[in-house]
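Subject: Sanity check before I submit

Could someone independently write out the structure tokens for this chain? I want to compare against mine line by line before I put it in a report. The sequence has 219 residues.
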Amino acid sequence: MNDTFTLADAETVNDLKAFLQRAKRLDPEGLVRLRAFGPVLAAYVAPIFSGNLMDSGPTILGLRTCELAEVAEVDGVVPISAVLERLAKVINEDFIDLTVPMPISQRAVWAGISPPRQGWTQVGTINESRLTQIARDGIAEVAGSLPESVGGPIAARIRGEIWGRGIDLETRVPTGAAFAAAGLGFLTENEEVGLFQAEGWVRLSSEHGHVLAKASTKF
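---
Independent answer below. Compare away.
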């Protein structure tokens, strides 16, 4: 495994930076899994995730890929803030060196949940306007369902119930997937977002990124 990776160009640096900044706004203490086995870096984040593997709550993953300047082998779960710090140094050096050192890897429960890498079949599309409205409605429902004095575990359960609920029986896309797609900046006005399914998973794929989640069983 390499302890560094080299991004393709300045635009790629800024693209990864913008993605991670959005992810950090959704989860200030969040982690990102960086994986590369070739010329492409995959960056996974988890804006919504269960506290443990036995939890029935949803785990929603956001994925953005970036082109590398050279082949690399990287696989680590690292703080988003640490990667942003390293990207800031690259930018401050006027892009003389686009090589980014990997921060020290940590453990994350959600990193053990691996969506399929192959076997995806497109089953339709969902318009951006619908996903955006679902995200807004979910945010309002979460806010209206959490008393000011509610404790952490109860709050997590309430959020899990809302974000894990499917948007309909046909697609089985959890509400939280719409929230993640909107919050990570993956949606473009009036875009038809691709809907894919594979082995009990669903995926929303737009021009700007992918959201992956276990197919919802709650409606």
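---
OP: Matches mine. For the report I'm noting this point. The mean pLDDT is 92.
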